# Entry
Amino acid sequence: MAKGLQAAFDTSGWSAGLDRLLGPARVSLARSMAVAGGEVLRDEAKVRAPRSGQGAVGEFGPRIPLAETIYLAFRERYSGDKEVKYAVTWNKRKAPHGHLVEFGHWQIYPVIKKADGTYVTDKRRKLATPKWVPASPFLRPAYEAASPRAQAAMIQRGRQRLPELLAGRGVNDDT
# Structure
């Protein structure tokens, strides 16, 4: 992904409170903040993702516009007491072509426009010369454009959530 975001924050107003949080409350704060930032990144990715494909029929049925398949997912396998991870990604079952759009690909079969305006890949024959289809990235540009807003949303959510947790309210509410 893009270069890491580097910024300095004045934490003097809330770092003492953060040091008092332990166990589930600390994880709850981290998850709440991560969700707030992840939602900003997810929404930006949805805006930037291609919306073509409506009405197209792929190998597995009607193709859903890629933007409609983007979601924020908790990465339980990579998270723990010291770190929580979320991913902004697309549903690979609903949009198996997402990686082709994000990274580009070699087109080896002809694509035919049907009378109804939809497109279909003709896998009965190969192109004489494969054609490079350039990437139309949406995740990386979304990250680069929305990182400052995501970081601000995370800090805002942390400032809201920390007093609640210090008061013993909503430890299991991660949003």
Observations:
- DSSP finds four helices and eight strands in the chain.
- The beta strands are 57-58, 61-62, 70-74, 86-90, 105-107, 111-113, 119-121, 131-133.
- Residues 93 and 116 are 25 Å apart (CA to CA).
- The first strand starts at residue 57 and ends at 58.
